Amino acid sequence: MQKNITRILTLLVLLTLIPLAAEAQKIITYEAGLGRRDKRNPDTWILCREVRAEHEGMVLYADSALMNTTHNDFTAFNDIEIILSDTTFIYGNELYYDGNSRVVDIWDDTVIFIDGATILKTDHLSFDRKTNKAFYNTWGHTTNAGDTLDSQIGIYDATQREVLIYDRVVLRDSASRLETDTLLYHVGTETADFRSPTYIFSDTTTIYSERGSYFTKQRYALSTKSSFVKTGGRTLTCDTLHYFENDECGKAQGNVVLFDSLNNVTCMGHYGETNQKTRSSFVTGGAMVTYVKDNDTLFMHADTIHVTNNKSNDVERIRAHYGVRLFRHDVQAICDSAHFMVPDSNLFLHHNPTLWQNAQQCTADTIVLHTTSNGVRQADLNGHCFVIERIDPEKYNQIKGNNARVHFADNDPVYADILGNAEMVYYITEEIPGKGTAIIGVNVGVGSDMRIYFQRREPNRVVTYRDPDMRTYPLSMLPSEKKRLEGFSWRDEQRPHSKEEIFK
Questions:
Q1: How far apart are the C-alpha atoms of 115 and 103, rounded to whole Å?
Q2: What is the DSSP string of 450-493?
Q3: Which of 81, 278, 286, 464 might form a disulfide with 447, Cβ 3.0–4.6 angstroms?
């Protein structure tokens, strides 16, 4: 009884193992018009005329072949076609297939691997049926939709529908060319991921990145490391870049620098955008713009800065909003918003502006500064204008009125027109031999309108119009209430004394 039970169990085990052994040793089946055994190797059949072989769902056609029945491998020649599925095919001229490892090696001047709409061409291809991956290392060319990929080495994953390529990689779409060293291309989404220095070239732009993705269907590039895009004379660099080639616009984040080499304009900030169609750009978040002209540099800081170009791609206007502070060696200012008209070098300051030039401070509702390569040419102070010049901590020259226009030559005031409710307090000085300059009196006066002529930056002559009331006081006789005009406010602590102080 015990022996019978043992025999039954042994038989059940053997019956269980038989399918596994058969599964592990599936033999390549074949048929051909003609066939004979190789006399030198009886294990090999020489096949020709419409050779057909099949192994585990793969069907192969060739003109001739060698079938080794012992090793379960197959060598085929001429007009080879391999059918892997309804949509996956391989074509070549010479093939070796190992039925045990299930690896296809195929050669030709042009081996063609087709997987749906994806076509891979090379001169030697290895295809591993277990992993469903094709490999080449002698240069390959892949096409998918409107994209083409070239590289020295490549792996195509038919399951994931991905192409991983190395060494002199080039990806082309309808209007651009990508060059890199390593690339992962997703067939379904037509997206390329890269992790090495990469350039994307088009007719109008060059994009550089060391990590990111390129969506060829949308023509959209995402860069997350060492990014820049160059268009004509403009270069945008940043940490993270989004660039839309169809719309010719980009968005940048982190250490943003927009440099216009044609116009010597640089914008910096934490976030920025540029649009070639509208010829406009802006930066925000600790934003600063520098404009260089005639070896002189204007530094301007604000929350947000816009730059607009004209049709000739020359910078036309620079606009700054919220917390504006600017510095140039000959002039400094603060206000809430400003814009600089580049062609005529006019600077407009709005909303509580304060302007400093040398020892003078100007305030008004709006200030317009007309500049040239030689410095300030004219200053227009519109609405509640107030001009103050410091003599010492206790003494200040002052001009006040509804509006004022100050004319300059070589950066020095020549004359000033005070229009409407003009008032002034001006200290009179005189050169005393051996003692230098001394204050000898104070002019205090009002008038409907007033013109003040300057000589060596000091009032030389004052002309008042309509209802003038002018008085000259000895310095010791000046009433204390006359020392300050109503609304006096000296703001030197707010003045940026260097380009670094515009961020205070």
A1: 17
A2: EEEEEETTEEEEEEEESS-EEEEE-GGG--GGGSS-TT----GG
A3: 464
